[in-house]
Amino acid sequence: GRAVLRSSIREYLASQAMSGLGIPTTHALALVSAQDRVMRETLETAAVVARMAPSFIRFGSFEHWAARNAPPNLTALADYVIERFYPECLIPESGVADTPAQRYVRLLREIVRRTAKLMAQWQLVGFCHGVMNTDNMSILGLTLDYGPFGFMDAFDAKHICNHTDTQGRYAWHAQPAVALWNLYQLANSLHVIVPDADALRGALDTFEPTFLEAMQTKLSLKLGLGAWQPGDEVLIDDLWSLMQENGADFTLTFRQLAHAPGLSHADLARIVQDLGGTAGQDIAPFIDLFIDREAAAAWLERYRLRLQCDGALDKGARIDSMLSVNPLYVLRNYLAQRAIEEAQNGDFSEVDRLFEVLKDPFAYQAGRDAYAAQPPAWASKIEVSCSS
User: Fold this and answer.
1) What are phi and psi of 30, to 5 degrees?
2) pLDDT tens across 297-353, in order?
């Protein structure tokens, strides 16, 4: 069916943004606009997005046949997914009695693993999906269906990107739990062809440790730490709390931490370039993102002492590593909105420029400091819904 230009541009840019960040995603191949009018909240310009993925099979595809109590169809669907995308699930496990149903348990376990890792990746770039129902969950662990998504600006663990989600079901902090709930619905569907409920529960039980391990690994990289050490969870939890209390910018907090005062002896020109102009000669990177600068400085001193445990203080390798995993450019809502407004007036040049910026979100891009800046005040008033 016909979409609207507004939501189509957002999806076209979002899949590129996620791909640039290294997050598994479906892709937008092309965007075509037309002069037709489509009714959403108002009359809008029509458009079509051509989307690409190895498969668009979703958790809901299995629920469909389970709800109709159609075991042959469920078996055919599961076998197709295994043979086409998960052939390793055909290999029996050592020490486990193999039955025809065991391949579906192995399939569930692999989907759980991919989904848990995807959730960690979403969380650590401040991405909120907005509508995480089972029909928006890919069987391949891809980010699927960009509707009322958003990248957080000011950090808020309860951030809601979909203004129609009045209960906060899909808030940032809730996303991993919602993903697990969706996996339970997938397991319930597979139970129609897998009699062993305990085996399915065992596969689901791998979600939490996989998610936590992925979070720890990626947080260690984002903060430039070495191997995870006891007490790191307290240091990081206190950083989240500090960001929450001060409404610190999610993206820039991690980016500017690489060059925070007392941690870097790089020359000013290097710092300004690495931070994309978000910190200059009269600005202290990281600390000035917080209203309570003293609290930020106190946390920074604890962080500096933690770095000393790794011998990583002021090492160029640490800074380069942090900059390679903490993006400078993300698809902020106000950037998308600006591109949309120009496109609605017939000028797609900003869509093209933003698309190019998002291809390489980690490296400084000369002349594009505006794309790394904190959002203007009006950005907080942008609302997106299921019609995006």
Assistant:
1) -155, 155
2) 999 999 999 999 887 666 789 999 999 999 999 999 999 999 999 999 999 999 999
| Buried/exposed code over 213-224 (b: 16+ C-beta within 10 A; e: otherwise) | ebbbebbbebbb
Residue 114 · residue 141 · CB < 8 Å = yes
Which residue in the block uniquely carries the two structure tokens 């039955």?
99
135 annotated active-site: yes
How many angstroms separate the CA atoms of 35 and 152, rounded?
33
Count of Cβ atoms closer than 10 Å to residue 96 Cβ: 11
Mean pLDDT across the stretch 230-242? 96
Residue 185's pLDDT is 98
| pLDDT for position 314 | 67
Catalytic: which of 135, 196, 288, 292?
Answer: 135
Residues in Cβ contact with 266 at an 8 Å cutoff, skipping those fewer than 6 apart: 259, 274, 319
The pLDDT-based confidence of 165 (bands split at 50, 70, 90) is: confident
